[in-house]
Amino acid sequence: MRGQESDGITFDEIPPLTPEQAGQVIVLFSEYLDTADIRLEVPRGHNRLASSDDGGYLWCEKCGAVTYEDAEDCDTDGCPLRAEFEEDTV
């Protein structure tokens, strides 16, 4: 659906989904995909799915889904995850 190679269905005539659109599709179908309480998101600034189950992303109430590395270096004003990392290093 993101314009990548796929098995079976292709979307040749349709432009790729944006990360935001892909995230909305995931949320739309999550109740059918989420039998083990695994959360799938496209982390901010990335072009891939990540799972909360294996530590693929952290959730920030201000920034949304972000990778661990990106959360440490987040440049968003008032980012609560970055503040947590700063507290842990003091």
Domains counted in the coordinates: how many? 1
Task: Report the total helices.
Answer: 3
| Radius of gyration, whole Å | 15 Å
**Fraction of residues in H or I helices:** 25-40%
Question: End-to-end span in angstroms?
Answer: 43 Å
The H/E string reads HEEEEHH
The average pLDDT value, as a whole number, equals: 78
DSSP strand count:
4
Short description:
By secondary structure, the chain is an alpha+beta fold.
Can you describe what's shown?
With about 90 residues, the chain is an alpha+beta fold. It has one domain. Helix content is about 35%, strand content about 10%. The strands form two sheets. A two-stranded antiparallel ribbon has the order 1-2. The chain has a two-stranded antiparallel ribbon with strand order 3-4. A hairpin with a 3-residue loop joins β3 and β4. The longest helix has 15 residues. It is elongated, with a radius of gyration of 15 Å. The relative contact order is 0.11. The model has no long low-confidence stretch (mean pLDDT about 80).
Please supply descriptive tags for the structure shown above.
90 residues, alpha+beta, two-stranded antiparallel ribbon, 3 helices, 33% helix, 11% strand, elongated
Map the helices and strands.
Elements: H1 19-33, E1 40-41, E2 50-51, E3 58-60, E4 64-66, H2 68-72, H3 80-89
Antiparallel strand pairs: 1-2, 3-4
